[in-house]
Amino acid sequence: MSFLLSLDYFLTNFLNRLIPHNTLFDYFFSFFSMKGGSILIWMAIIVLLIIFEEKINKKFILYFLVALGITSIIAFGLKNTARRARPTTVCEKDFSFPSAHAATAFTAAAILTYFDKKRKWLYYTVAVLISYSRIYLGCHYFLDVISGAIIGYIISQLLLFVPDTYPSHRKS
């Protein structure tokens, strides 16, 4: 276990220093990381899809919101079970493992990709930026973010394949 934690600290420090810390990058990554901000980004994407895509329907929007809700409940439940302290005290006061930002980002990206494959690169780029912002700002360790991303992706895949619950309009 100490090897895993040592690797986690090493990767966290490496990724935290990968991009220089300055005012521009601080604001950029804060935008992707602000409390509730990542949800606002996904809601903006949904609004744009509603405006520009014909096949988006109310069932898809409801499904998307329910999936994000389930992911958040599971991520926060795991946080309170694992009770891992954050790398710094600058961020939220709750626990670090897993990253709920990464979990919801990858749930959103996977579900949006299911509906709209042609913009897959956009959805996963946003998910990676949200996730990386948590390490850049010192709010999470590497394993918190990777675990959150995996949890979010798995939850989305499980929800997409529950019979009669996923949106009926799949667009390529």
TrEMBL record:
Keywords: Membrane, Transmembrane, Transmembrane helix. It comes from the Bacteria. The chain crosses the membrane at residues 27-51, 60-78, 98-115. It comes from Candidatus Roizmanbacteria bacterium GW2011_GWA2_34_18. This is PAP2 family protein. The keyword Transmembrane helix applies. Residues 60-160 form the Phosphatidic acid phosphatase type 2/haloperoxidase domain. It holds the Pfam family PAP2.
